[in-house]
Amino acid sequence: MSLHPIGKLYTHLHSSEQGLTQSEAVLRQARYGPNQLEKIAGTPLFIRLFREFTHFFALILWFAAGLAFFAEWRDPGQGMATLGYAVLGVILINGVFSFWQEYRAEKALAALNNLLPHHTTALRDGHAVQLMVAELVPGDVILLAAGDDVPADCRLIEAFGVRVNTANLTGESRPQSRDTKVAPEELRQDILHAGTSLISGDARAIVYAIGMHTEFGNIARLTQTAAEPLSPLQKEIMRLSRLIALFATLLGISFFFVGQVLGLSFWANLVFAIGIIVANVPEGLLPTVTLSLAMATQRMAKKNALVRHLPAVETLGAASVICSDKTGTLTQNRMSLRQCYCSGALVSPGELPEDAPMFDVMQYCHDLRRIEQEGGAVWQGDPMEIALLMSVRTVREHVKRQDEIPFDTERKRMSVICDTPLGPILYCKGAPESVLPLCSALWLNGEVVPLDETGRANLLAVQEQMAEKGFRVLALAYRSLPAEGIETQRETALIFAGLAGLIDPPREAVPAAIKTCHAAGIRVIMITGDHPQTACALAREIGLAVDPVAVTGDRLRQMSDTDLQLLLHEPELIFARTAADQKMRIVQALQRRGEVVAVTGDGVNDAPALKCADVGIAMGLSGTDVAKASADIILLDDNFASIVAAVEEGRAVFDNLRKFLTYILTSNIPEMVPYLAFVLFKIPLPLTIIQILAVDLGTDMLPALALGAERPDPDTMQRPPRARGERLLSWAALLRAYLFLGVLEASAAMAVFFFVLQGGGWQWGVVPGLHDTLYLQATTACLSAIIAMQVVNVFLCRHAQASVFSRTHRRNRLIWYGVASEILLLLLIDYTPWGNALFGTMPIGAKVWLLIIAFMPVMLLMEELRKAVVRRK
């Protein structure tokens, strides 16, 4: 189809200059379907919810609950039913929170549909009619004007001064000219794609692709089919949950058989096995992680980073590469006149002489339209023409336009003829190589002097110098016309007025943000649909690269995966003129290298890469709905610098997760040791299962969350990103929790337990009844000691090396609220009738509390000594 003349194109699509008949359009609608994007079926919500209750971690808890209910059926009155219901509550909480954490509404498709126009003008039976976009079919002839969105992929039949904004689809910031000339496929200028819009001109085009068969539809398909990778945190939590659950189950089964060998009854062994499982499974881990991430999102929202996907908070902290879009992300997405060449000198726009004729050309030579909006009148059209017009310092008097010679790709210039008080004047602007050959003179300090070939060569050299800085350079010229006469060759003998250098300027905070990223060991790679020269100039200006290596989409298309992997070793790499699928390919290649990749973007073309990246970051102000719906994080202020603050928060999340994981795992040892002592030494069970749950799901929850709310350490952004394979629960953290802090807590708990029993006259080998007052007081003392030691532990876990008394700790009110809640819950458990009945406790005396309190500074002193040794290494 690419080389068919218009007549053959009508034949090929079975259409005509009058468009389709209504009856034929109805038949084609039935055959091709509506012009809209189709949704690819995903996993139903109820299945996703069901999965949260059937993963390995949940199955272990289901098994424990089932054993508890079975034990209650065989031996009623032992409190096993209460345990069963408590474990079911844990399963419900974990499942609901995890589902909410994973659930995201799939809005990308709806956003794509919303971006397409809703109505368009088409020819039916030779008459122009308004149609719903969904009613368009291949073969329809549509009419387009400046400001219209393109509703389907189509080929131009007629075009008058057509320029198209393709930024959303290609990332190209400069408007693209389109005409009816047929060219090779890679140079096509006669195609309009769905999702783009006309900046200027009028056009008639014939539709050849609709819906999912358009380029727009291809991006939609990539967006929907791109697999969302599990975040490093999700993978680590899954691994950790399975490891702990498997360890707890094997330990429970092992000690069940140990009890059998030692001669304990079946039911005593069963209680023991369930207790071991419950003691080692951190039931509060998943909801605590979720709530901690949710709190981090609130802090990030205050820094203008809106989180749509909770795990993305921590993933961003692990990011080792940020693939950034250029237009609208690193730049302001608006053209600005930055430099001018006038009267033989390069000057800023503010330094132009007041009488410079450049101002007249900028004010009158354009195709802009002034439209009324709620906020007032605005100019609509080519952003470059708007930038030129906005740079006019003193608005000249209004003049009437007599004629226009429109811009086209062959001439690369446009001219207007205006009726001024000085007579008819032609104003011209365009590419320097097109305008300069038409000039015979130049304006120099208020005078018009001849321009020879040497002068033209000098001007072209200046133009090259400006282009190397990334400027889009336009030549401005003018001439007076006779009141009557010449209708042809009007664009001759022009007077050169000057050169205008325009650029999409970078955001003010971007250079500092790039510098911070480099200090934090984060590599920033620009991936843009814009021109390589423009991208390289911007990279130098913002400090992204000194000597960038620019790779175009055409070159990338010819590369094998191996070549791309080798290319990614380049330290200062930029990708330009890239398509949507190529950007996604780059992201996936980086991921195969083990990088944690964050992608920023704002256009439709960025959506697939945003979705397949480890974390996608969309611009909230300039970003399309497509990009926002495909992203994990949205920058509310479109400021690249906000990413730096978000990365800092993300890194703090991982550190905080390790802190509270150490905190909650510490209590596993004093919960497990009583059961081991119960079996091995045949003593009364020091701690019941329901009391274990009181710690894991009660007193430990708020202090654990307080650790999750710790602010970033001052040196957070001065260290490199953590490795993708770094474990949340390292061996150092595990040994500290289990073999040091946990042992200290277990020693205190067991000492207090025996202190109460011995004080009440207990004899070794005697097994008191479950409702015996002395036994209830002893288990209460054991439980109280664990909770009291956890009060100290929350301060110890704030930092793995820094002293509790160090000033590096920032203020955290939530820790004090957590400690207060811990103490309050302990008092309610020990000294209220409902607490005694639910948890099997009994009030304890002052002597017991004095012993418990005596153990607290011992634990503090021992941990301070350990930290001092670690700091000296």
Automatic annotation (TrEMBL):
One of its GO terms (biological process) is proton transmembrane transport. Residues 2-73 form the Cation-transporting P-type ATPase N-terminal domain. Gene3D superfamilies: Calcium-transporting ATPase, cytoplasmic domain N, Calcium-transporting ATPase, cytoplasmic transduction domain A, Calcium-transporting ATPase, transmembrane domain, HAD superfamily/HAD-like. Pfam families: Cation_ATPase, Cation_ATPase_C, Cation_ATPase_N, E1-E2_ATPase. It is found in: Cell membrane. The chain crosses the membrane at residues 53-71, 83-100, 243-264, 270-294, 728-754, 774-794, 814-832, 844-862. It is a multi-pass membrane protein. InterPro entries: ATPase_P-typ_cation-transptr_C, ATPase_P-typ_cation-transptr_N, ATPase_P-typ_cyto_dom_N, ATPase_P-typ_P_site, ATPase_P-typ_TM_dom_sf, ATPase_P-typ_transduc_dom_A_sf, ATPase_P-type_domA, Cation_transp_ATPase_P-type. Belongs to the cation transport ATPase (P-type) (TC 3.A.3) family. Type IIA subfamily. This is ATPase, P-type (Transporting), HAD superfamily, subfamily IC. The lineage of its organism: Bacteria, Pseudomonadati, Pseudomonadota, Betaproteobacteria, Nitrosomonadales.
